[in-house]
């Protein structure tokens, strides 16, 4: 069975007022458009052509959620739990109402994520930078009491990153935060001759500060890897990894969960002890997954069984796919169609998706353009 899926963009404040409209070739609405969900998540199940929603077809059993994501300003810094942490947190909070603002865990699942850039430039913060590199970056800032405090804390022990994040978000570092942000903004306007390889990072953090003045998350962002993706490049965000998207358009796929612990750049509640409990404070680069493969087909390998994602650039020659489990075909460029083994065919417009039920084991995609194939992992 093949179904056509659409959904209305979600109007989160950080959404872009032009990226989704540009992708779909329509006039912008003037309002922020942040995400389009293709899944059966109860928060916003996809609409099925002809009536109804996808959860009525699947019973809410999809292990993944596929999205278009358009960031016009930075998202909150956040981290997601492992399955074990999610189950324990869900059990601890079992007596809280589903909409209780004190609730951290909305379900008992983990939420690993993969983001693939659709725009020519997609900026993110992904993981914590090694301390020695951050100390080198701090060396470019004007000496101030806040900068000195931050440098001293980072050099204070084996778990200094976790301890420093706790200090920044705990409410007692506001004066230091203001000091550090001022120093970052001042450094960001210097030429690259003064700031060298750190110039792009400093300008990115200064832009974050402009969007979230005085927010301690700005200094948390200063501790993170600034990652710039080009179109078709991706990063996988494992459980415990601190991250935030800054700007750009992408295709995102994740395990079907809504468990988020926030670490700044948000007016929403931040549970600092719980954030620190699930944070993986191990520093290091997050690998960028780059387009590769034969015939315009790129797979993005991930170490989780919840989902798999493949990008296909179509040149007019049909591509046959062996599929296993409920599968989606999301169109992101051109004119494309999806057909099943029994000849059923759906034209998929850009910004919409086709859904193939689990009884389909072979699909054919045709046309000229670009599609993303989402399915359960293997």
UniProtKB/TrEMBL annotation:
It comes from the Bacteria. CDD domains: cupin_PMI_type_I_N (cd07011). InterPro entries: Man6P_Isoase-1, Mannose-6-P_Isomerase, Pmannose_isomerase-type1_CS, PMI_typeI_cat, RmlC-like_jellyroll, RmlC_Cupin_sf. The gene is manA. NCBIfam families: manA (TIGR00218). Its cofactor is Zn(2+). Gene3D superfamilies: Jelly Rolls (2.60.120.10), Phosphomannose Isomerase, domain 2 (1.10.441.10). Keywords: Isomerase, Metal-binding, Zinc. It comes from Microbacterium aurugineum. This is mannose-6-phosphate isomerase. SUPFAM superfamilies: RmlC-like cupins. Its EC number is 5.3.1.8. GO terms for molecular function: mannose-6-phosphate isomerase activity. Belongs to the mannose-6-phosphate isomerase type 1 family. Residues 2-130 form the Phosphomannose isomerase type I catalytic domain. The keyword Protease does not apply. It catalyses: D-mannose 6-phosphate = D-fructose 6-phosphate.
